[in-house]
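Note to self: user wants both folds in one dump. Writing first protein now.
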Amino acid sequence: MPPNLTGYYCFVSQKNMEDYLQALNINVALRKIALLLKPDKEIDHQGNHMTVKTLSTFRNYILEFEVGVEFEEDLRIVDGRKCQTIVTWEEEQLVCVQKGEVPNRGWRHWLEGDKLYLELTARDAVCEQVFRKVK
């Protein structure tokens, strides 16, 4: 049984974000801004329906989906692209595959205690972010 990810999580740390942003071909100015951000995550997990909000002082991104159902994701706010996305469970990890212009693009979320981990991939870049549950 997958865990329920509902909660509010505050940013703790990240590794390798610049390489990830370069793999997405994000311009230098936006990369510099993104590297300064410390986004929070708010997740509402009701059965197979999920809403994942990434909240920052610069931009917010809201992703709403049904687990196991492919959909078109509009990532223009992130990198100017759209892609076909599917989110599924692999054991206790929520795994997203984003098919489009950028190969090997996606992410995975998992819990360890009160920490939420997020691994972002694009091309051969891998970025890890860690968040702490506060409510």
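First done. Writing the second protein, which came from a different request thread.
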Amino acid sequence: MVHPNQEPAVIAGQGTIALEVLEQAPEVNAIVAPVGGGGMIAGIAVAIKALRPDVKVFAAEPRNADDCYQSKVRGELTPNLHPPDTIADAVKTSIGPNTWPIIRDLVDDVLTVSEEEIKRATRLVWERMKLLIEPTAGVGVAAVLSEQFQAVPRDVENVCIVLCGGNVDLSSLTWLTDLPGKVE
């Protein structure tokens, strides 16, 4: 079996995302990506820091599944003790022993967002960009729209948000009707 986020070859493959970003947007000075098991953010961080160490790398995760944030704060791998309850189902898994050292050393910060922020960001992308993203991709958007990200130094002005995943079960979108009004 090839592990989906702890296998070194998979982590390296995910690093090609950073190569594509640098090719398409060389002026980028920050990348924000959702984090679950950590394979994608670890691969991105290795590639981007090797080629452009000045680019900031931010991991984004739901507050209800904040093992990466807790690990960074504590300085040690701190997996979620229970399966997290979050709409962002692709990031319900915890970072692991192969991704943690990379995240610890190369990811500049971990931003956490609420379920409400994830829902609003996902809806915003649907309505404004006309892209049908899954809520996990909405985690990165929510992080950039958050007050926490607004405190990032002003020299971070060209931000790439990785919109990952494409698993939207339209029959499970009952949460959409719970949001008041339209996105402003």
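Dump finished. Worth passing along: The chain is about 40% helix and 10% strand.
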